[in-house]
Amino acid sequence: xxxxxxxxxxxxxxxLYIALMMFxxxxxxxxxxxxxxxxxxxxxxxxxxxxxxIYVIGGYYYHKKFFKDLSKSxxxxxxxxxxxxxxxxxxxxxxxxxxxxxxxxxxxKQMQKLYDEKQDHxxxxxxxxxxxxxxxxxxxxxxxxxxxxxxxxxVDKLEDEMQKIDSYVEQALYYSRxxxxxKDYFIEEVSLNRIIKENVKKYxxxxxxxxxxxxxxxxxxxVQTDSKWLSFIVDQILVNALKYTMEDGQISCSYExxxxxxxMVILDSGVGISQADLxxxxxxGFTSSVVRSHTKSTGMGLYLAKQMTxxxxxxxxxxxxxxxxxxxxxxxxxxxxxxxxxx
Length: 343
Description:
It contains 12 helices and 7 strands. It is of the alpha+beta class and about 350 residues long. The strands form 2 sheets. The protein has a 5-stranded mixed sheet with strand order 2-4-5-7-6, covered by helices on one side. Strands 1-3 form a two-stranded antiparallel ribbon. The two termini are about 70 Å apart. Its EC number is 2.7.13.3.
């Protein structure tokens, strides 16, 4: 803080002082003895000006020390820190320090959030790379051991691995787009049967290969949603069901409805989830202890499904019993219009 800048801050006080002195001088001029009046005016102005100079200059050095100490505390060793702040000597200084501390708290919180997001993103990328390398390595192995095998058999196995890679790439794509969700969705009437059948068809070969039986309610149920995002949500649920359902298992899809919502229920006879892990299945990067014993996973599928259902104003819940089944339920609340109440 420089003296000119401090004087600029005190400009209204200085203007008030000048106005007061002009008024006092004018009052003194009214005196009948003009020589005495002029003498009193000069004396009064000199004394008052001296006192004001002492006040202004003293105030400048008084405040300068505070801001100098504050600057040293904030930028010690070239870093912005909020330790060893000077003691406030006025209410204004106390307010400055409080505001600085609030800003620092908000800044630190925001930086921590950005750091956590960056760390989560990095963890996901590393996990995703390790997971996507598996079907790539398997593809190379299939080609290396292709001698004596039919082309159809080789192509069939390679297609399975390519489908896994495609699924991982799609997951990464949706993960990168989740923060820009509001710019990329369109709500319309969507058939749940169409969504589930398209996804089952996508994994038909895996169903056949593992001898997994799939059943579905043929009842036609429609909801208000975005078909693209809902399809991805169902895809993640179905991928998990297929991954953790053993051969000769069963996966089914059914629908429920009451006065508040419609529900899509996807039930599998897989390895299930332990009760200890059930409350954490929607956390980012979390994989159940039962799942870890069977296969590696990024732990992002159900997390993304949860995030997307919430953005669509839907919900997702899960029930499971270890070693018996897992049931995932998608909840679609009913939204009533004015015409509905008129009816």
